[in-house]
């Protein structure tokens, strides 16, 4: 789709297949932050077909292995945003593979639950 930054990617692919590819995030939240993106323009993760979903998650595993070998993180946050209310700003599915390092946050308890301020602690 014209104007979509992931349909007209201007970066080198880290990994590539017939249905998806991986690139470093342009605004990484940690060292090694990578995006896994389907080649077909789809706005909503829940509109991907089964083959795309299987291939994307397979590539997430490959990306994790690559990050492990280069950066040696102690953990990961992996996720995606669906819809404006969830923070989606690019209208093309993409999965964030975010390596985490000991001490990168004072108290990481709750992990992805921190997407809503004040709700991460339990």
Task: Reconstruct the topology from this structure.
Elements: E1 15-16, E2 20-24, E3 34-38, H1 50-71, E4 75-79, E5 95-100
Antiparallel strand pairs: 1-2, 2-3, 3-5, 4-5
Descriptive report:
By secondary structure, the protein is α+β, with helices and mostly antiparallel strands. The chain has a single domain (15-115), classed as HIT-like (HIT family, subunit A, 2-Layer Sandwich). The chain is 18% helix and 19% strand. It contains 1 helix and 5 strands, in the order βββαββ. It has one helix at residues 50-71; strands spanning 15-16, 20-24, 34-38, 75-79, 95-100. It has a 5-stranded antiparallel beta sheet, covered by helices on one side. The longest helix is centred in the middle third of the chain and has 22 residues, at 50-71.
Instruction: Briefly note the structural class of the backbone.
Output: alpha+beta
H/E topology pattern: EEEHEE
- Counting DSSP H or I runs of 4 or more residues, the number of helices is 1
Any idea what the radius of gyration is?
15 Å
Question: Could you list some keywords that capture this structure?
Answer:
single chain; 122 residues; alpha+beta; HIT family, subunit A; 5-stranded antiparallel sheet; 1 helix; 5 strands
């Amino acid at each position: 789709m014209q104007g979509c930054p992931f349909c007209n990617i201007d970066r080198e692919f880290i990994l590539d297949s017939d249905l998806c590819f991986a690139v470093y995030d342009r605004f990484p939240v940690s060292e090694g932050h990578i995006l896994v993106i389907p080649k077909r323009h789809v706005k909503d993760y829940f509109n991907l077909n089964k083959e795309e979903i299987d291939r994307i998650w397979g590539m997430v595993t490959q990306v994790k292995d690559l990050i492990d070998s280069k950066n040696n993180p102690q953990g990961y946050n992996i996720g995606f945003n669906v819809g404006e209310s969830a923070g989606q700003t690019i209208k093309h599915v993409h999965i964030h593979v975010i390596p985490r390092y000991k001490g990168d946050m004072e108290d990481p308890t709750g992990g992805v639950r921190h997407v809503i301020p004040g709700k991460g602690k339990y």
